[in-house]
Amino acid sequence: MNKTEVLEQVRITCRVRRLSYHTEQCYSGWIARFIGFMMRAHIKGLAREERLAKYLEELAPRSSASTQNQALNSVVFLYRDVLKQHLGDIGKWARAKRPKRLPVYLEKAEMKALWNGEDFVEHCRKQVLWYNDFAPDYEFPRARFGKLRFPSW
Known about the structure:
This protein is mostly helical. It is built from 7 helices and no strands. The radius of gyration is 25 Å and the shape is elongated.
């Protein structure tokens, strides 16, 4: 089967299984990228599982963990449901790192300390400048800080 026939079979299988249109588009895109990756010369001599592991390892440094999981699920769908071939053990491969989750709230004492700080407005200003790639002072919209109202505890 060539690439267009495989992608057509992916579309037909998605529609038979009543997957959403967006899932069909996503799977088709990842499978097309995987087929393109498999056509490279340095990959041709490897087994299916090794090809998939190399593909996922290539994705790891430049993508998030959820993106890598989407690629894995779409290729597993290709082998299991479209081609009806058993995909063996992939083995160990480099997974993308999940970001650390920081708490999204502050305790009441922390909020009081934050609001009562004298340099809170200046701290906010520095943070905004830092996140805007150190924009010069004259570009900073000073007028907006005049409209901020801080609650009194």
